[in-house]
């Protein structure tokens, strides 16, 4: 090689080196948009705990870059959602958006993230559109779609021979879509949803609707409530004397992170979810021990989803060696990945939603004990996704 060429290569390397160095030296800022107040506050805490546990297990670095956090309390308020995302994007200059619990808030996040090309990981909210009509190469979900656990329960309840079912939920995307998914499977199998009851989110005045359920006398009830609302609903259902006469079923959120407060009123309830107590795998046992040690409490499905959101970020960042400008390579790594979740390994669908087993669980004491797999490797249909 001629002297001049060597000199040129040397110069080029010298120019690149500080760039690479600067990149690995700067931190990646993760914007956590989660509820820290209101009916979903405990869910937000579990997600944040799970996320930070995984990052801590990697020594605080993913893809060779140190992780730092900015956060906002989104209050599960869709009216404040766009302002809150912009606080993270413009005030805090975050590199990645992670959030949130409430579907209405998460949908607003997904829209801003898509428009700005920001990497977005949804660690809970189940709105079907996020990995459906709003899907994007930079949008990923570590949790579930509302359709998934609801559809599985529709099959379970039809197989039990119920014919007439009343549904009751909050009137917003998550509740509506949970009922829709349930109804799709239940009616396909010959059952009938005879009445759809709703209360506005986050209202917990259930009494008039419980009176209506008693008067309608369905074979069973299907419900979606979560967090503090789920605690009150399960207690009110039992207090109204309905638990003995009209069996109550739900998507798993009804009894997740709530059993301490629900006590005996939740005993025996059957729910469907992508996580359960008593899975017994080495992966889950290790996660549960680490979580209990770090936070002095048992993990729930929300903690798992937070943990896996961080795992997914790690898979992408490792593939691009910490360089977040390589978005296509980041996405490709996740599309090919088998994610080693405490819930059991899962892959992502074409629209970036987990393809996962949905468990049937029963409340035994303070646990949602696994009693079987209701639906194996269930994939959300990703309706409307044209990615
Ligand atoms: C949602 O709004 O998508 C949602 C909220 C709480 C849950 C599950 C889904 O537990």
State the helicity in percent bands: 40-55%
The structural class is alpha/beta
Ligands, ions, cofactors? P-hydroxybenzoic acid
Order of helices and strands: HEHEEHEHEEHEHEHEHHEHEHHHEEE
Low-confidence stretches: 6-10
- What would the average pLDDT be, to the nearest integer? 95
Please, could you describe this protein's structure?
Helices cover 44% and strands 22% of the residues. α4 links the parallel β4 and β5. α2 packs across α12 and α3 crosses α4. The radius of gyration is 22 Å and the shape is globular. Bound molecules: P-hydroxybenzoic acid. P-hydroxybenzoic acid binds next to loops.
Features:
alpha/beta; binds P-hydroxybenzoic acid; six-stranded mixed beta sheet; 22% strand; 44% helix; globular
Précis, in short:
This protein is of the alpha/beta class.
Task: Write the SSE topology.
Layout: H1 3-25, E1 28-34, H2 41-57, E2 61-62, E3 65-73, H3 81-91, E4 96-99, H4 103-116, E5 119-122, E6 139-141, H5 146-159, E7 164-171, H6 173-188, E8 192-200, H7 207-216, E9 220-224, H8 227-239, H9 242-245, E10 248-251, H10 259-262, E11 270-273, H11 282-295, H12 301-319, H13 327-336, E12 347-348, E13 354-364, E14 367-378
Helix pairs in contact: 2-12, 3-4, 5-6, 12-13
The structure holds P-hydroxybenzoic acid.
């Amino acid at each position: 090689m001629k002297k001049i060429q060597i000199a040129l290569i040397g110069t080029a390397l010298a120019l690149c080196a500080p760039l690479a160095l600067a990149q690995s030296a700067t931190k990646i800022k993760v914007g956590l948009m989660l509820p820290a107040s209101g009916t979903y506050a405990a869910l937000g805490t579990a997600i944040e705990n799970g996320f930070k546990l995984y990052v801590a297990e990697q020594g605080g670095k993913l893809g060779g870059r140190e992780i730092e956090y900015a956060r906002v309390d989104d209050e599960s308020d869709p009216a404040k959602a766009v302002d809150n995302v912009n606080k993270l994007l413009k005030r805090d200059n975050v590199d990645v958006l992670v959030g949130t619990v409430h579907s209405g808030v998460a949908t607003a996040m997904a829209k801003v993230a898509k428009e700005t090309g920001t990497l977005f990981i949804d660690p809970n909210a189940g709105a079907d559109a996020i990995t459906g009509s709003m899907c994007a190469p930079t949008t990923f979900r570590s949790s579930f779609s509302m359709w998934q656990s609801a559809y599985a329960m529709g099959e379970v309840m039809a197989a039990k021979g119920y014919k007439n079912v009343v549904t009751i939920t909050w009137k917003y995307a998550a509740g509506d879509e949970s009922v829709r998914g349930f109804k799709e499977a239940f009616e396909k199998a010959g059952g009938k949803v005879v009445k759809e009851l709703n209360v506005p989110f986050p209202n917990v005045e259930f009494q008039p609707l419980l009176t209506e359920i008693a008067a309608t006398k369905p074979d069973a009830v299907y419900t979606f409530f979560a967090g503090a609302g789920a605690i009150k609903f399960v207690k009110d259902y039992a207090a109204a004397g309905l638990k003995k006469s009209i069996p109550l079923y739900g998507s798993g959120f009804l009894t997740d992170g709530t059993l301490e407060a629900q006590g005996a009123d939740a005993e025996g309830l059957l729910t469907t979810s992508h996580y359960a107590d008593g899975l017994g795998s080495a992966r889950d046992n290790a996660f549960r021990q680490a979580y209990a040690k770090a936070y002095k409490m048992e993990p729930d499905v929300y903690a798992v989803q937070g943990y896996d959101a961080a795992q997914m970020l790690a898979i992408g960042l490792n593939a691009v060696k910490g360089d977040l400008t390589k978005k296509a390579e980041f996405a490709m790594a996740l599309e090919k990945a088998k994610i080693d979740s405490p819930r059991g390994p899962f892959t992502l669908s074409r629209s970036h939603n987990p393809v996962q087993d949905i468990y049937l669980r029963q409340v035994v004491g303070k646990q949602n004990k696994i009693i079987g797999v209701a639906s194996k490797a269930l994939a959300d249909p990703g309706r409307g996704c044209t990615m």
